[in-house]
Amino acid sequence: MPFIIDHMGRPNPAAGRDDPTLKARTDPETNQLIISGMGELHLEVSVEKLMRTPGVKVTVGKPLVAGAKVTGEIVEQTKGDKLVVFKFRLRKNYVRRNGHRQNLTAIKIAAIEG
């Protein structure tokens, strides 16, 4: 999962020097620095290191696509299969049976523009 690191348009050379598995590239459309690595925890640690760097303002979020728009419609709203939660304690005369049904929404994507 890539992260967007936007810090006033200046790349930070110290971020890549410590970790060779960290890849950084600049998106030409949005002019944002996109950092990708070996998993979410790896990226969170790298972002924390960048935030501790003095003089660097870091904003973290999902990657943007300039001018993208997704149009869709709700097809149906239903409930899923019953999920049974069974709790049991050995030799304590404790048995509880509970459950619920998840709400589900089916969405049909009409168009992706941009």
Ordered list of secondary-structure elements with their pairings:
Layout: E1 3-6, H1 13-18, E2 23-26, E3 33-36, H2 40-51, E4 59-61, E5 69-89, E6 94-113
Antiparallel strand pairs: 1-3, 1-4, 2-3, 5-6
Brief description of this entry?
The protein is α+β, with helices and mostly antiparallel strands. It contains 2 helices and 6 strands.
Q: Percent helix among the residues? A: 10-25%
Approximate shape: flat
Low-confidence stretches: 6-10
Order the strands across the largest sheet as they lie in space.
Answer: 2-3-1-4
User: What is the number of domains?
Assistant: 2
Order of helices and strands: EHEEHEEE
What features would you describe in this structure?
This protein is α+β, with helices and mostly antiparallel strands and 114 residues long. It folds into two domains: 59 residues, Elongation Factor G (Translational Gtpase), domain 3 (Alpha-Beta Plaits); 45 residues, no CATH class. It is 16% helix and 49% strand. The chain contains two helices and six strands. The strands form two sheets. Strands 2-3-1-4 form a four-stranded antiparallel beta sheet, with no helix packed on it. The longest helix is centred in the middle third of the chain and has 12 residues. The two termini are 22 Å apart.
